[in-house]
Design a protein that fits this description.
The chain is mainly alpha-helical. The protein folds into two domains: 3-124, no CATH class; 163-329, Orthogonal Bundle (hpI Integrase, Chain A), CATH 1.10.443. The chain is built from 13 helices and seven strands. The chain has helices at 30-41, 46-67, 81-90, 98-115, 163-171, 176-188, 192-196, 226-239, 263-277, 284-297, 302-309, 314-317, 325-336; strands at 3-7, 18-22, 130-133, 143-146, 203-204, 209-213, 219-223. The strands form three sheets. The protein has a three-stranded antiparallel beta sheet, with no helix packed on it. It has a two-stranded antiparallel ribbon with strand order 1-2. A hairpin with a 5-residue loop joins strand 6 (209-213) and strand 7. The N and C termini lie far apart (87 Å).
């Protein structure tokens, strides 16, 4: 039995358009689709539903290999169900990353809880413990929480591009559209999806502002750098086809000319320029990392950087605060020069 994620045009507003179905019959996997329906009613985005559906697709494939059915029953769920699933994920080749395993297990846990609120599979002996949790920077009241089954994730290390790498990659572009896309990532920290979702009315050139739809459709307004303003203005006046779709960045050539640029098209664009320049680390999110690291080094406050990046939690922003020995020395020298010092009691 094989399963796949399917997008359906369902007229009812109570059912998710993203479904997990059995491939040969097209019949939906009930317990998964009921969970997706619940989150659809909660107005989660299609991208989030699609991510959840794929995470549950991995689980139902494993479940079917063990129980020979895609349906789950309360009698088959045990305290070691999720633990067995973690073992299975950890033993696969190529092995998924720790964060991927944790996302898949957490999604499966929520979907099973939605179907069976009293299911015992969440409790894995030896994996639950009570710990003291405090907000980043020591803010807020400490609280006790119950940890869930998780694989230990390695510490996230942010590696920005060097000045030379940025210059070489930047020099490989020859039109304003592509330069504007890279500029929005490098000088404003936009995610690739945020760039592709932009419309011309989101670029407020006269006001020097940019309106961005972030995760969860949250709006934020960013200041536009003069260089980015010039690139976007040049693209709008000279390169953007007319007529075309409502998108800001559109396909410039071929049968799809004038249609919104797709994620696959953006990946292809970066892939080509990585091969041209030999800078293998140059991807859209790496430019976002580079922007954040540059802002931190320039002395921007964490709350301001959090707003610029569109983070919901300042703990995510803290990942970009990398302090090198040189940074420590420079900041100490700057601070020490302003400190009150006692007069020496010894002749010089």
């Amino acid at each position: 039995m094989k399963f796949r994620v399917n997008r359906q045009n369902i007229p009812s507003g109570a059912h998710s358009p993203i479904q997990v179905v059995e491939q040969s019959t097209g019949q939906g996997v009930g317990w998964i689709n009921r969970y997706l329906d619940r989150d659809y009613v909660r107005r989660l985005s299609d991208k989030t539903l699609y991510s959840y559906a794929h995470s549950l697709l991995y689980f139902v494939r494993w479940w079917e290999s063990v129980h020979h059915t895609g349906d789950i029953s309360l009698a088959d769920l045990t305290e070691s169900t999720l633990l067995d699933y973690v073992r299975y994920q950890s033993g696969r080749q190529p092995q998924p990353s720790a964060s991927t395993i944790n996302d898949r297990v957490a999604t499966a846990d929520r979907a099973i809880r939605n179907e069976f609120p009293d299911a015992p599979c969440q409790a894995a002996p030896g994996f639950h413990q009570v710990y003291l949790h405090r907000r980043p920077l020591g803010l807020g009241r400490p609280r006790f929480e119950l940890s869930r089954l998780r694989v230990k994730e390695p510490k996230l290390t942010i590696v920005p591009l060097s000045v030379d790498e940025v210059a070489r990659f930047w020099a490989s572009f020859h039109n304003a559209r592509d330069l504007a896309i890279v500029g929005l990532m490098l000088m404003h920290g936009l995610r690739s999806a945020e760039v592709l979702d932009l419309n011309p009315e989101d670029v407020l050139l006269s006001e020097g502002q940019l309106r961005v739809r972030g995760k969860g459709s949250k709006l934020r307004y960013l200041p536009l750098a003069p260089e980015t303003t010039q690139l976007v203005d040049h693209y709008l006046r000279l390169e953007r086809p007319n007529p075309c779709s409502a998108a800001l960045f559109v396909v410039l050539k071929g049968p799809a000319r004038g249609t919104r640029m797709t994620p696959a098209g953006l990946r292809s664009l970066f892939r080509y320029h990585r091969q041209t320049t030999g800078i293998q680390m140059a991807n859209p999110h790496r430019f976002r990392h580079t922007f954040a690291s540059d802002m931190v080094r320039a002395g921007i406050s964490l709350p301001a950087l959090m707003q610029l990046m569109g983070h919901a939690d300042i703990e995510t922003t803290l990942h970009y605060v990398l302090v090198t020995p040189q940074d420590v020395y420079l900041q100490y020298s700057r601070a020490a020069a302003q400190c009150i010092r006692p007069q020496s009691r010894f002749p010089s």
